[in-house]
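Cont'd.
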Amino acid sequence: MAHSVRPGSEIPESQVTSPAVCAERRRFLKFTAAAAAGGIAGVGVARATQAGTKFTGLKKGGFTTDEELTSFEDATSYNNFYEFGTDKSDPAEYAHTLKTRPWTIVVEGEIDKPGTYDIDEILGWMSLEERIYRFRCVEAWSMVIPWVGFSMSDLVKHFRPRANAKYVEFETLQDPEQMRGQRYPILNWPYREGLRMDEAMNPLTLLAVGIYGEVLPNQNGAPLRLVVPWKYGFKSIKSIVRINFRETQPPTTWNDSAPREYGFYSNVNPDRPHPRWSQAKERRIAGERTLMESLFTTRIPTLPFNGYGEHVASLYTGMDLQKHY
Ligand SMILES: Nc1nc2c(c(=O)[nH]1)N[C@H]1C(S)=C(S)[C@@H](COP(=O)(O)O)O[C@H]1N2
Ligand SMILES: [Mo]
């Protein structure tokens, strides 16, 4: 069935008069008309664009885990998103100023189909699924998150990459008006990340548009963010506006900012300590525990490749992972 995801619940009654919702409805009607005329697959997802809107009829993806989930509350209030400030609570407090529609993504470089694509055009091609992934921050805390999204590889096919596309570079929006943290030179804005092409095409590599069955809250990287579960969290770049296919390894934000501490690969590796702390254990933020209990009492061993070795270890055969950290 092409429509693996059906439209979410109706827009909440309390919001029906807001201009944003009117614009949203106009956009949806336009999109539905285009879809009816053109038979766009996966049209059902088009309506779920506002944070909090539920996706219904989501199919379960192949990747999952039985571990205790992080609560929605913790996953959406304890965040790293320096564009909104450096405190974990800043993104939840300030990310509402980010406007996630309309949203376009420039796709360019070593591909046959470069262009500026509307996020909803992209969503029209894709079939969404739910996947539960462990997520390990380089700061030694971890979460277990049910994401909604699609494999990056399924999207990349649409752009017809050429043989010399060896790396993919990603860029976050730069707009200090919407992202107050960008008014300060904390990082070299815009935030940039990158993957080797075979990493990007691995089936685990996810582009996420939702979390816990609903549209991504802004603080989690709406409207589209990367999730690479075998790498430290900073590789999972948020609010993507540019994807560039390159022949050479792209510069990446944290590597530029502190190259001795953060490498290009940044695979989760308990045997390679960060210069300032061990990576052998992690604080799991999950279950019924309060955030403070999780942060101060629960330490579990960190697994190589965050436990995804069977899927990804072969990507690094013959590489010295102490050197290519
Ligand atoms: N654009 C952007 N993407 C980003 C970051 C950021 O500061 N800016 N922080 C990264 C880090 S360090 C982590 S741990 C994860 C946090 O994702 P979460 O807040 O959804 O848990 O986002 C990553 N993606
Ligand atoms: Mo992180």
